[in-house]
Amino acid sequence: MRPNIGMINALIRITCGFTMLAWATAKMVKRPWRESFIIVAMLGGMKVAEGITRFCPLTALFKEYMEKNQDEQNNDRLPDVINPT
Known about the structure:
The protein is mostly helical. The chain has helices at residues 7-30, 36-53, 57-76.
C-alpha cells in the first residue's frame, strides 16, 4: 500500500475520526441500544486508520478508474498524422 493522500489530509482525517469516535462513545454511554452510534464509531475508526496509514481505498479506486478511462480515450483517438498511401 503506497500512501495516496497528503500529510494535511491525513491529519484532518485523524482529527475528524477521533472527534467522531468521542461523540459516538459519549452517546453510546447514554443510549447503548442505539445501533447508529456504533456505525458512527466504526466510521470514525476507519477515518483514523486512513489518516495513520495515509491510504484511502476510495481515492485509490477513483484514480484507477480515471486512469483506465484516460487510456481508453487515448486508444479511441484518431492518429494525428494521416498516411497518404
